[in-house]
């Protein structure tokens, strides 16, 4: 008997132009376009196995070993239903295809990064879900088409269907059919973009982005100006900067847009804060690091960006990452030694130091644990279809014990 | 021999609609109108003695016991020159008046609150300077006229020329002659408005408001929208709320405008942060305190506002201040016992507690010293001319030893 099963992995993406606000909450249609860098799956990824089997009783899903309810009309159910519909279209056109679109599916998904890392896993998770179902159903590979479906799981998931530098075009149609992701440039165009993720400890539960963004839409008197007048120009300019590999412009816009996203969150009633004193201190360090570079006749060397949480993601050309790790460790001593996936330190430890001319008074040193972890990664590729040896489901169609 | 000398005191004011941005940095003309509550001089004030004497060598000024240089063309020199010019007008019209406008002046000023309190003293300081010179020169009392001069010392000083609720009308003329303060309502109109100042410890030197606001003017892509479309409507609505003694509306607009001021500061490049984790926690407490009140069918009971620093000022009707002190002390234990100028606690200590139904998880408790001090005050009157017994200058025309 044939087993209909496929496994795929999908990457995390971190936006440079931020998505904040929906014009349609059911279809997940945004109030503005956004743009992100896809991070390397070698370091951060969601992996998902999907199997269709007529013996299954119903659609089921396990995330990190725990079964999740697939609510009728919910986001998971919507994505699965849409993927089955695409399969049915194929089956209707080609009667030689096995009729698996009618079978219940079992889906098993894992993230290789701990939830405690504070990294949004819904983008990579829904992208991996869609990618694994697309492989299972042998759908023609059109990532923009698939991104329409991933978008309905989690808005920013649509951008994880591509590697490299990815725009989510907001679209205009009420049915959302023109609100999908497109690739601005593949990773190979600008592989030199690296990222250092600073995982920041937070003792306060933040506002969820789903409820937070709608409160901003309803109450901020600045958001509409951002949407109509600021974002379109930034989308144009940062796309141009990516095509020209102009890091200086890329960095300036990335930092400005992170700040503006947090500004409209703060302009919400009641206000929403995602950054804390540690986040602010990291900004001060990067601002000073860039100031020294510019004072020495150079250009910007790093860009910070913050999503809906206190973690910093620092984008920089690879050659600057070593200095940035030294800088962060100087102010935020680490409990564990730096995992050095690119061998920047040749096996030597990080001592923690600043570049010449750096004004050390821009921030005060914090204790161990304020920044819990540093993850060095880089721009990466899009979803990957994996071999059978990577399957997360056992022969019985239930999650393998790990 | 006649001694020409006068002493005046002037109050602190804390804005509800924030001043942030100049259209003329020399004349100190703002990019938007603003509105503040004048606080009671019984608790917080600057006191200034001015003496004109032909034996003095030059204009001199002492602030809190230290001599300050009066730089040619600087703000102090401008204010003194303009006040002398008003006196000269009088002398020119009435030859019986002593010709003291040509005499050098000695000016001695003190604040009754420590600089360490983190309260901006430039507003009360320049208002007291102008008020004491107006008394010395026996100028006709027209506070709006004097506010034009105080404005050139420190923008927000113009609002400290009045008691009660005060608007600084931005004006339109290039010469600034229509950019002055007017009283929206005197303290007697709404004496029930009290204020609790939470003095927050900060280990980081903030950006000065003078340089910060101009960086916002130059780099924020949201500020112009605020100036043109948000502030005019808020000025209208909050003035109406004050005239109607509508605390609910007053509170909502006050909090929204504090948030928006900090939002445009954050939208600046590089971003400006004035609030820290303690400030954020106080916001969370007031938001929750108001939520409980509204959930019980009531209206907003308190409003926070933050100037260019981490200190919170909480406005509330007097009847709520006791609950608010209990709330703040619960999360921010105090080293010193609460100075209770209005006898709210009848000599009993503050124990620190929350109102029924309050979700204590909205903030974590901090250690002693995170909020260094609590100052309870209320809406107050405008500058006062004081008696000779209050003089700060000795017979020799130099500061008295204190």
Automatic annotation (TrEMBL), chains A, B:
Swiss-Prot/TrEMBL catalytic activity: (R)-5-diphosphomevalonate + ATP = isopentenyl diphosphate + ADP + phosphate + CO2
InterPro entries: GHMP_kinase_C_sf, Mev_decarb, Mev_diP_decarb, MVD-like_N, Mvd1_C, Ribosomal_Su5_D2-typ_SF, Ribsml_uS5_D2-typ_fold_subgr
Enzyme class: lyase
Domain Diphosphomevalonate decarboxylase-like N-terminal positions: 10-181
GO biological process, any: sterol biosynthetic process
Pfam families to which the protein is assigned, alphabetical: MDD_C, MVD-like_N
Keyword Lyase annotated: yes
Keyword field: ATP-binding, Lipid biosynthesis, Lipid metabolism, Lyase, Nucleotide-binding, Steroid biosynthesis, Steroid metabolism, Sterol biosynthesis, Sterol metabolism
Ranges for domain Mvd1 C-terminal: 195-385
Pathway annotation: Isoprenoid biosynthesis; isopentenyl diphosphate biosynthesis via mevalonate pathway; isopentenyl diphosphate from (R)-mevalonate: step 3/3
SUPFAM superfamilies per UniProt: GHMP Kinase, C-terminal domain, Ribosomal protein S5 domain 2-like
EC number: 4.1.1.33
Signal peptide: none
Gene Ontology molecular function, alphabetical: ATP binding; diphosphomevalonate decarboxylase activity
Cellular-component GO terms for this entry: cytosol
Family: Belongs to the diphosphomevalonate decarboxylase family.
PANTHER family: DIPHOSPHOMEVALONATE DECARBOXYLASE
Annotated protein name in UniProt: Diphosphomevalonate decarboxylase
